[in-house]
Amino acid sequence: MTSFQRKTGLGRGLSALLDDNDATHPPKNTVNPVSETEQRTENHIGTINIADIETNPFQPRTEFDQVALNELSESIKVQGLIQPITVRKNGTNKYQLISGERRLRASKLAGLTQIAAYVRGANDQQMLEMALIENIQRENLNAIEVALSFQRMLDECNLKQDQLGERVGKNRSTVTNYLRLLKLPPAIQISIRDQKISMGHARALISVEDTSKQLFLHQEIIDKGLSVRKVEELVRSLNTLPLPAPVIKQTANSSEYQKLQRDLASKFATKVKLKVGQNGKGAIEIPFVSNDDLSRILELLDW
């Protein structure tokens, strides 16, 4: 193994994928096969032209902090690139980035035309897995990016959740919790992505089944700066509240209202209409046939 051997902290899956055993046991289903001459040039560290490197089509990361890139660029100008990027051959003198896009971008900002790279063989599935796993291991990756990466590994790498957990060094319940984030309404997912709410807030909201209640609590978190514990308390209260007692809807057809309508008609000596809505609100209509009849009704009302 070369001095470029990865630390086990990157997870069993990534270290296995980066193992040099591919040199002696190349994958059978390689989508982009290379010649024997090209194979002999793989699995080594060398210096290659940055202009010959294509971006990784399987890159799951969509956002890069420009300030952090500038800081890394300044560091590269002074110290050089400490950790080589990883690429695969993609034709004669052409390469495709596997991992290290942030380092590649910073090197371009630093004005470098060449870069140290670990050249290795990899098929498309290995490319995808390595790109996803490398990004998942980053501390600054937001929870939605992690969840989307997990989902891509399940869908495109034909993995089960327990296999995925082994690849990324996480237990199955952690994987499940991330995947459940993708069931939240888009507005909440955006807030998680933009770090307006935390993973803890999101996990509390997941247990609320009603989407409108989720969105209401989500807005309360943002407007009032609610802590995760406070949201959990609100959710527990919401889920443990007893169902309200059924409300008996009083309508104009109920016996009580019919009796009241008859009594009013008798008092005013005219047909009285009593209108009652389902919420208990309504109106009384007392018709009159002339000004004299109106005066009579007003006198009865002591007007």
From TrEMBL:
Xref: Pfam families: HTH_ParB, ParB_C, ParB_N
UniProt GO BP: chromosome segregation; positive regulation of sporulation resulting in formation of a cellular spore
UniProt-annotated stretches for the region Disordered: 1-40
Keyword DNA-binding: yes
Domain annotation ParB-like N-terminal: ranges: 46-136
Gene Ontology terms, MF aspect: DNA binding
Protein name, per record: ParB family chromosome partitioning protein
Species for this entry: Pedobacter duraquae
Phylogenetic classification of the source organism: Bacteria, Pseudomonadati, Bacteroidota, Sphingobacteriia, Sphingobacteriales
